[in-house]
Amino acid sequence: MKTRTGLAFLAPALILFGVFVLYPMLTAFSYAFFEWQGTSRQGFAGLSNFSALVNRAPFKTDLPTALLHNVLFFVGTMLVQNTIGLSVATLLHRRARTRRMLQTLYAMPYLVSPIVIGYLWTLLLSPTFGPVNQLLTKIGLEQFALPWLGDPKTALWVVILVSVWQWVGFPVLLYGAALGGVPEELTEAARVDGASHGQVFRKITFPLLIPAIGTVSVLTFIFAMEAFALPFAFGGSTGNPAGSTDFVSLLFYRSAFDSGAVDAIGTSSALATVLFLIIFGGAMAATKVLRRHERRMAS
Amino acid sequence: MTQRTRRSTFTLIAFTGVLAVAACAPSSDNDTKGSGDGGDAKATTLTVWSWRVEDEAAYNKIFDAYEAKHEGITVEFKPFKATEYNKVLATGLAGSDGPDVPQVRSYGQVEPTIASKSLVPLDGKVDLSGWDENVVNSAKSKADGKLYSVPLARQTVQMFYNKGLFEKNGISEAPKTWADFTAAGDKLLAGGVTPIAVGAKDDWTLPIVHEVLAAPRFGGAAFQEEVLTGKKSFTDPNFVASIDVFKQLAKYFPKNVTGVAVTDAQTLFSAEKAAMFPGGSFDMAVLKKANPKIDLGVFEVPAPTGSPEDKATTPGWADGNFAVNAKSPNQEAALELVKWMSTKEFGQMVADEVKQISAVPGVTYNDPLLKQMADNYEKSPSPYLLLTDFRYGTPSGTDLMGKGAQQLLLGSKTAEQVAADIDTGVKAWFKPSS
């Protein structure tokens, strides 16, 4: 009786999950193994759609660059967003008065759609009318008035930094909560023993924050690997200029929806499957490392 | 307690059941709506899908005229957001809720829809004789050579210019030779005006700019023939030289051009900070609206020095085609409507109401600028080659040219390298016909 009641309570969620998540995912997965003529499915294709990702243009050339950009996006976000997030959270933790308000303020941009953010920053950074470059010129920093989004050397980093600007409130909130969970007895005891602020942070707070850092890293990894909206808003579906802001999901988008290839469904499904495996595998591996670390800490 | 548990279990199961039924319901619901009047021969409702939300009023007017002449037929025009239309249409045509008459893409981009066997072949049913060949090709499948739609509009690309700014800088008329053209650029530069407003941050505009500035340099229609039959490839010296025109004219473009979006370029033009804008006939409405005070003109850019034939051209293509859904329950009525779309009566209404250059030959235009663009195309047409023939696979010719031209303008690749990239890129799927 008990299990049956339990199942009955689970049923609505399970059915919704099955119909709207599991079923579409499995069908997309199966699409990658067939030949396609437009939307009509032909014979079994084996792995040929997957080998096209390695052997055929544009995937042969675009997929490695796009994947590299995803990885850079992850590394950049990890370094900048999480460092800033952790510092801000630590500073806010010591501050009782305006903490709530500041946390909300940091999280504000996060409430705006990435498409809107991208559009706004495109206007701000425009080399012809953008206020950013006008300001830089006025205060005598002409050498920094660059075509930010027009130069492949800077465009990707603009995308990363704007993403950091938008999402920094997220690690602030998570680290804030984790810092609240660090037992005060420990830090107090250390302080009594004569440890400095820095020592307390390095020896006590930071190790206790590792599970939170791990969670944030896994979420950042997933976020960076499936980045779409912001790069799309900045560089369109082709990663302008000259493919310098191209990402795997953009490559998927243009090969699935913008192409004249009759086998688009097959190759793009293969690409989606590969992307899923990368994200799933990466997240699983990271979680495993994290668990092991937690267990070591507990013992 | 147990009774209560049992009751709530039952309620839950019932609720889940309702959910499951609800999940299946919408499609069957739409089914009845879609073919609602199908049984009655006298009253038929034809649905037309389109991505032109902005033209809804114009199409309603056009279809009112059709309804007045065809008793018992109601045409329902249903536009969708342009960016989502491809997905909406693919789903609609694959299922049973699709339109009777869908607006479909042209050239290579309609090929997946045709391959899905979603459209009715129109050979022998619709007569397009006397139409421009490039236009008709937009409606044909390269795979089987059959006709699958009726083209709606011709788009032409050419140079828009600000007549007032030209005069102010001592240029009395639109340039007739390449030397005139570059001299005009120099005069405008000296006058502190950006000569040509190009938005190279948006790669899709660059193949258009390439056609406007350099179509004669690679040989236009003659080159189309040679490249399609495999006599020449994109590494041909004339094609390479046509790409190099970007480099030669780069000094006339806005500074940091790869950072300038196409909207910025249009703003430069409408704020009278730039004197020329290479664009499509579809840009005319936007340019006129942005600054109605500008005395707007168009001209064909003269053939660059060294062109195989010293003759300016107006590159163009067709789009907005209408087809018949193979699953439509009202195929006969739908075919009748599509047939009407190939008549001069419909074409004239497209020109007057939708304000586009109709695909139907012999239509007249009230707008002098539209008339000039249509006449130019009539006189000296050339295909927008990378769109009309090189969008039948990935990577598309236009994508390759967009990226390549950006690399050229950034200085990271030479014209030869860009041409070689286009050549290897399209060879991933393109096979010459001979």
From TrEMBL, chain A:
CDD domains: TM_PBP2. PROSITE patterns: ABC_TM1. Gene3D superfamilies: MetI-like. InterPro entries: MetI-like (IPR000515), MetI-like_sf (IPR035906), UgpAE/MalFG_permease (IPR050809). Residues 67-286 form the ABC transmembrane type-1 domain. It is found in: Cell membrane. Keywords: Cell membrane, Membrane, Transmembrane, Transmembrane helix, Transport. It is a multi-pass membrane protein. The chain crosses the membrane at residues 7-34, 71-92, 104-124, 155-177, 208-234, 270-290. The keyword Transmembrane helix applies. One of its GO terms (biological process) is transmembrane transport. Coiled coil: none annotated. Signal peptide: none annotated. The keyword Transmembrane helix applies. Its main location: membrane. Pfam families: BPD_transp_1. One of its GO terms (cellular component) is plasma membrane. Belongs to the binding-protein-dependent transport system permease family. This is Sugar ABC transporter permease. It comes from Knoellia locipacati.
Automatic annotation (TrEMBL), chain B:
Residues 1-22 form the signal peptide. InterPro entries: Bact_solute-bd_prot1, SBP. The keyword Signal applies. Keywords: Signal. The keyword Zinc does not apply. Transmembrane segments: none annotated. It comes from the Bacteria. PANTHER family: ARABINOSE-BINDING PROTEIN-RELATED. This is Sugar ABC transporter substrate-binding protein. It comes from Knoellia locipacati. The lineage of its organism: Bacteria, Bacillati, Actinomycetota, Actinomycetes, Micrococcales.
